[in-house]
Design goal:
By secondary structure, the protein is α/β, with parallel strands linked by helices. The protein folds into two domains: about 1-150, Medium-chain alcohol dehydrogenases, catalytic domain (Quinone Oxidoreductase, Chain A, domain 1), CATH 3.90.180.10; about 165-305, NAD(P)-binding Rossmann-like Domain (Rossmann fold), CATH 3.40.50. It has eleven helices and 19 strands. It has helices at about 1-10, 50-60, 110-115, 160-180, 195-210, 225-230, 255-260, 285-295, 310-320, 325-330, 340-345, and strands at about 15-20, 25-30, 40-50, 70-75, 75-85, 95-100, 100-105, 125-130, 130-135, 140-145, 150, 190-195, 210-215, 235, 245-250, 270-275, 300-305, 330-335, 350-355. The strands form four sheets. Strands 3, 5, 6, 10, 11, 18 and 19 form a seven-stranded mixed beta sheet that branches. A six-stranded parallel beta sheet has the order 14-13-12-15-16-17, with helices on both faces. Bound molecules: beta-D-glucopyranose. Beta-D-glucopyranose (BGC) binds near residues 53 and 305.
């Protein structure tokens, strides 16, 4: 039926969809083209990064479909090329771009009203590919110009690292803001726990700041120690003793590691937690001594999630200055869309797995 085929060709696209709350419902679907209400800029997908949040959604433990829908288009670590954009919106066909994940809540709360949706106060924010908004895991997607970031064309497919980099750019900004509470704060040593993409990118931003960066991860071999050392960080396959870091960025979310980092910093130290734990397990420990040390040493422990436009821009600048060979080493597997299910199987040595929409 030729009419039917051309209808499909011009009016449908492939998208990875899930039914949030239902385990293993991920499938490659044929869906209608992105609606104009998603934004004025039409983007052709090049790549999609996969992260732990996607796996949680696939397991049925996280994620929300758009209102009135049963399924959600997955994907929040985007990369694409602009196909069409309204004149004067700041984007033109051919631009290399990535979309911002979060949208402000509709109220809006004071943080969202100020453009700091990453600090949303009422929890009514939405997130593409995660919470009540279709994501970027489709052959084409649309984005509002204000929620699209232009990337240095030289980054090419490495631009898919923008979203995880934005998350650590925010963490570093917040650490520096907290650090400025003390007139003479001069951090020297930073510890990052977990050498996944977020940990390695956090270490990368720490080294860009001229700090002595230590990275702890239980993997003694494979690409992680190599990437950490080639970056200039000191790699530890066992929890480092006697380090007394000024800054800790925790990127594992693992109970034992989180507990360890709460007590590891020295005076005036700042511990930033970025890993989302699953919860449900309990550990016996001495809250009183931890509290005493935190109070007597002016320590700060805080959590950081998501990123706003300022952080995406900082991340785009940091990536443009990075050694591209090193960045390329973070992407350990590129899986063509036709073999999408392989991208979601965890394999030894994986750091960042990327779905390739061009292959
Ligand atoms: C994303 C964030 C998001 C968070 C919570 C993370 O994987 O990188 O942008 O805010 O999940 O949904």
């Amino acid at each position: 039926m030729p009419g039917r085929r051309s209808f499909e060709k011009y009016h449908c696209m492939l998208a990875l969809t899930v039914q949030p709350g239902l385990a293993n419902s991920l499938q490659l679907d044929t869906v209608p083209p992105p609606p104009a209400s998603d934004g004025a800029v039409l983007v052709r997908a090049l790549a999609l990064g996969i992260c732990g949040t996607d796996r949680e959604i696939i397991n049925g433990d996280y994620g929300w479909a758009p209102p009135g829908a049963q399924r959600l288009i997955l994907g929040h670590e985007s990369l694409g090329r602009v196909e069409s954009a309204p004149a004067g919106c700041g984007f033109t066909a051919g631009d290399l771009v990535a979309g911002i994940v979060r949208r402000p809540d509709p109220v809006p709360c004071p943080a969202c009203a100020a453009g700091e949706w990453d600090m949303c106060r009422n929890g009514q924010y939405t997130e593409r590919g995660i919470k009540q908004r279709n994501g970027y895991g489709s052959e084409q997607f649309r984005v509002e110009p204000d929620f699209l970031i232009k990337l240095d064309p030289a980054l090419d497919t490495l631009g898919v690292l923008l979203e995880p980099t934005s998350v650590v750019a925010k963490a570093w900004e917040q650490i520096e803001r907290i650090g400025s509470r003390a007139a003479a704060w001069q951090p020297r040593v930073a510890l990052v726990t977990g050498a996944g993409p977020v940990g390695l990118l956090a270490a990368f931003l720490g080294l860009q700041r001229g700090l002595d960066v230590h990275l702890y991860d239980h993997n003694a071999d494979g690409p992680k120690p190599i990437l950490a050392r080639s970056l200039g960080a000191t790699y530890h396959a066992k929890p480092p003793k006697d380090l007394s870091p000024d800054i800790v960025i925790e990127c594992t979310g693992a109970d034992a590691v989180v507990l360890d980092v709460l007590g590891i910093g020295g005076s005036d130290s700042i511990v930033c937690l970025t890993g989302v734990s699953s919860g449900g397990r309990s550990i016996n420990f001495d809250v009183g001594s931890l509290n005493r040390d935190i109070v007597l040493e002016n320590r700060v422990v805080f959590g950081s999630v998501n990123a706003n436009r300022r952080h995406y821009r900082a991340a785009a600048e940091a990536l443009a200055k990075a050694d591209q060979t090193w960045l390329g080493g973070l992407i350990t597997r590129r899986v063509p869309l036709s073999r999408w299910h392989e991208a979601f199987d965890k394999k030894d040595g994986d750091i960042k797995v990327v779905l390739d929409f061009n292959a």
